[in-house]
Amino acid sequence: MLTLINTNRMAPLIGPIGLDYVAASAEKAGIDVEVVDLGLADQPKKALKDYFSAREPEMVGLSFRNADDCFWPSADWFVPGLKDTIKTIHAITKAPIVIGGVGFSIFAKPIVDYTGADFGVSGDGELAITELYRQLTTAKRFEDVPGLVWRENKKINSNPPSWPNSISLGTSRNFIDNQSYFKRGGQCGLETKRGCNRPCIYCADPLSKGSMLRLRNPSQVADEVESLLSHGIDVLHLCDSEFNVPRNHAYAICEELNRRSLGERIRWYAYLSPVPFDADLAKAMAKAGCVGIDFTGDSGSELMLRTYRQQHNREDLATAVKLCRLNKIAVMIDLLLGGPGETMRTVRETIEFIKQIGPDCAGAALGIRIYPGTAMEQIIAEELRKPKKSGIRRKYRGPINLLKPTFYISPALGERPAELVRDLIAGDKRFFEPALETNRRSAGADAANYNYNENLLLTQAIQKGARGAYWDILRQLRIN
Fold first, then answer.
1. What's residue 444's pLDDT?
2. CA atoms of 74 and 70, how far apart (whole Å)
3. Could you give the CA distance from residue 109 to residue 116 in angstroms, rounded to a whole number?
């Protein structure tokens, strides 16, 4: 038997769709699968002890979604909690433990080393978990398991990440309690593709999902939507890095949803790049039920857009906002302030431009989370060699360790960059402002708070019946 455990408890709760997909794949391969969901457990340790007191599986798989909250200055690190969970499980079962998930894949070997897990799977888990289960019960040829990280002779070995060329995921979504997640989280997710081929200097998606786009069949996606609808779930969020990349696949998804008239029964949100985005795609998305788009804007400064290696320009952002307005789609622009070369002038240029084009809201995130294997890591390494002030921001001491939350804010923004940005926003309620470093938790009960981690106001709104993308719920709280 295979036991899969959801370890993610960050509130508001987000359904572990990866666990749902992996469980379906294992069952299809003839493996007996059970799920223990700590996200829905009032007492996680008791839930684990109660479960393992009556069961002894051949393998235990842990889903680990986020290594930290990716937000400065809170910098809430979740890996120690994972270590504690693994210690608890090791004490009550002899079954080997394997970790997987997006948060794990970015830091695969360091997390296995830090937590004491027996194995890890970097990349897609569906086929890898099934193959590892078979190897554990047969020849134990671990080098044959795609994406596997394992211990051998006091050394941690790793195979190339598991990124199969094509993906075929289960559509029934029966292994987790999606209804409870919908009630407590306000939305449920699904994927239409995996991988990201964009060259952005900061993004970890190509590290965890691969740089090749791997597309799902539109009919399979629509089947999954219908399955979730049968459970009473009618508000969805697409978990793709950028839904419209490639554009033709996004259009085909919308066409299939429209062919089944699903746009009349669902509301959904998605992340998009400002390009490619045209009138036909916007119209098709609106008809298919899209009510909100979060665009990866990053900046309103052409200089910073080039620094981030974005493929859009300022006018593309302005056009995207106009198309959303024409199709009655709420529009959010995610900004990333403080990158290499950012100055007071470029920040002012960005804030003024966003005010001018007028999205429904904009997230003024300040500080770039530095991930190993990205161009940002190389940029920071070069900067640290020079005898000038570094832009590194962190809450831990000692050598730089990117497993721990480590951020970068351009030194040119001074000692109090958040106050600078807030002054430029000047109270415009369309902006989610950066948190002040004096308020390191930055959760509280403020609708301007852009950190979803333990966001009290957001959680309370969902409890009262609010449904949708978190930015849209917070936006509506601010205008009502």
1. 45
2. 9
3. 11
Q: In terms of DSSP bridges, do strands 267-272 and 290-298 run parallel, antiparallel, or are they unpaired?
A: parallel
Spatial contact of 70 and 369, defined as CB atoms under 8 Å apart = yes
The distance from CA 206 to its chain's CA centroid, rounded to whole angstroms, is 12
Tokens representing 382 are 């070069």
Report d(CA 464, CA 470) in Å as an integer: 14
Listed by start position, the domains of the chain span 2-158, 186-367+409-479
Query: Token digits for 95?
Result: 């079954």
The H-or-E segment that residue 437 falls in is none
pTM: 0.95
Could you read off the pLDDT of 19-48 as tens digits, one per residue? 999 999 999 999 999 999 999 999 999 999
CATH class of the structural domain 2-158: alpha beta
Lowest-pLDDT range of 312-321, 350-359, 388-397: 388-397
pLDDT at 167 over 60: yes
Residues in the chain: 480
Q: Which of 193, 282, 281, 190 is nearest to 236 (CA)?
A: 190
Is the peptide bond preceding residue 246 cis, with omega within 30 degrees of 0?
Answer: yes
DSSP 44-91: HHHHHHHHHTS---SEEEEE---SB---TTT--B-HHHHHHHHHHHHH
Q: Which has the minimum average pLDDT: 258-267, 441-450, 470-479?
A: 441-450
CA distance 95 to 89: 9
**Preceding peptide of 73 cis, ω within 30°:** yes
Both tokens assigned to 74: 């809170």
**Class for domain 186-367+409-479, per CATH?**
alpha beta
